[in-house]
Amino acid sequence: MDLLIPDKVHDESRQGEALVLNPIGKNNGRKLYIESYGCAMNFSDSEIVASILAEKGFETTQDFNNADVVFINTCSIRENAEQRVRNRLKEFAGAKFKNPGMVVGVLGCMAERLKSKFLEEEKLVDVVVGPDAYRDLPNLIDQVDDGQRAVNVLLSREETYADISPVRLNSNGINAFVSIMRGCDNMCSFCVVPFTRGRERSRDAYSIVAECTDLFNRGYREVTLLGQNVDSYKWSNDTEQVNFANLLEMVALVNPELRVRFSTSHPKDITDEVLHTIARYDNICNYIHLPIQSGNSRVLELMNRTYDREWYMNRIDAIRNIIPGCAISTDIITGFCTETEEEHQETLSMMDYVHYDFAYMFMYSERPGTLAAKRYADDIPDEVKRRRLKEVVAKQQAHSYIRLQQHIGKTEKVLIEGFSKKSDNDYCGRSDKNAMVVFPVDERFKPGQYVNVLVERSTTATLLGRII
Ligand code: SAH
Ligand code: SF4
Ligand code: F3S
Fold it and tell me: Boundaries of each MTTase N-terminal domain copy (predicted)?
């Protein structure tokens, strides 16, 4: 069981979403269907894939039944993420039966983890492509057209797709994800990402600024800079070195009307310099996603997170001092190998210390090949993991509610993203602190504009108010 409170970066409602774009000129008469699972990185990669294939004349479709090429961009982070993909592939089988010429491809982290094993295990799959091999897709599709099955799961130390300007899929024209780095070198013992995404590499800072500038010129008003550990961003050319604080500043300077968000921050690497940069620019949002995973130092050590409870608290104190009122969210894993009841209590007490605005909370799921799978027994029974998760979730719900209540009576600067899901009489948008705000439409303002909203009340997850 995963329990998620949706936001833009880990949006549960987007899992499995079919992505479409308008044709960009050429047309080869073939239709591409692509759906994505997992983190924002994967959604962002799907935009790169669509760009590469649009260049070759593919059109996108939202219906896999009349697609010539069906891609599923997959996630391996927990066992249930992989199960979801397997189930989905079964649903594609019927369409492929009717249209044997259909090319079915598995992309992303599961492709990288299972490699050619996928072709043995799932007979309907024609092509398996890892996250660093998307430039090879046109070629791989040609191979399948010639009657072969094709695999490219080479990981790269350099690939950042920096020169590919991603087409924006299912975009509202206001928020966009911008990948600033790929891979991860951290080797947290529970985590499959270093194996599926390869070594960490940072993208050319100027290509990031150019992409953000172009987005702004096309009307976008919010970018989310993406990386598994944005604080270790590091790029240099002959004359300068750019760290994450420098990059944040460069993007903030694109235009004061462009909001800047970022994810994910790592407690071991987030520096005071980054915090001061956030504090200095109004358009860098006061919101930090800082995964704790466990509140106990022994468990953190087994997890190979390379910080302990005290260090994490020190980083929280620094955020509170340097950016007063900053919203903070986190990720928590319950029932990691050997976690005792007292250690679980320390996660709960850490939650009391921070009062997170929201959290993504998971039961530990052993992943083959990871350090934890090799070294430690997955020895906490499922019902204990689940009960601990319930306790964590209950506490978080209480804290989220308190945090929302704190906004009541205050004025929030909201970027209008569109009409609310429930009614065309209401707009919705996010505050600087990433809270969802719903308020009656005022004809003078359009999506993409900022408004000041007086918050009057809240539901369990949304603030309600009116423009002032
Ligand atoms: N790079 C980010 C996390 C990416 S994965 C970071 O370092 O924080 C997103 C979240 O999934 C992780 O923070 C962790 O809480 C959860 N996760 C990762 N592997 C997991 C596993 N094997 N079982 C349960 N949850 C896991
Ligand atoms: Fe996984 Fe740790 Fe890297 Fe995050 S920092 S992606 S949890 S290895
Ligand atoms: Fe999943 Fe891969 Fe992202 S494992 S969380 S899609 S990096």
Answer: 30-146
Regarding the beta carbon of 152 and ligand 2, being less than 6 Å apart is answered no
CATH code: domain 171-285 is 3.30.750.210
- Distance CA(280)–CA(407), nearest Å, equals 22
Say which CATH class 287-406 falls into. alpha beta
Give tens-digit pLDDT for 312-344: 999 999 999 999 999 999 999 999 999 999 999
Find the helix or strand (DSSP H, E) in which 434 lies: none
- Length of the chain (residues): 468
Average pLDDT, the chain: 94
Bigger pLDDT: 170 or 392? 392
Q: Which residue has the tokens 């959290």?
A: 359
DSSP 48-77: HHHHHHHHTTPEE-S-GGG-SEEEEEE--S
In this predicted model, what pLDDT tens digit does every residue of 176-218 receive, in sequence order? 999 999 999 999 999 999 999 999 999 999 999 999 999 999 9
For the domain spanning 8-152, the CATH number is 3.40.50.12160
CA–CA separation, 275 and 417 (whole Å): 27
Whether 8-152 shares its CATH topology with 411-467 is answered no
468 within 8 A of 452, measured Cβ to Cβ: yes
Q: What is the pLDDT of residues 27-61, one digit of tens each?
A: 788 999 999 999 999 999 999 999 999 999 999 89
Task: Evaluate whether 416 touches 447 at the Cβ level (below 8 Å).
Answer: yes
pLDDT at 79 over 70: yes
| Ligand 1 neighbours by CB, cut-off 6 Å | 77-78, 190-191, 193, 228-229, 264, 266, 291, 293, 331, 333, 362, 364-365, 367
Kindly identify the ligand whose nearest atom is closest to the C-alpha of 187: 2
**CA atoms of 430 and 420, how far apart (whole Å):** 11
Pocket of ligand 3 contains residue 415 by CB under 6 Å:
no
pTM of structure: 0.94
Minimum-distance ligand 1 atom for the alpha carbon of 366:
22
Look up the CATH architecture of domain 411-467.
Beta Barrel (2.40)
Closest to 458 (Cα-Cα) out of 417, 402, 418: 402
Domain residue spans in the chain?
A: 8-152, 171-285, 287-406, 411-467
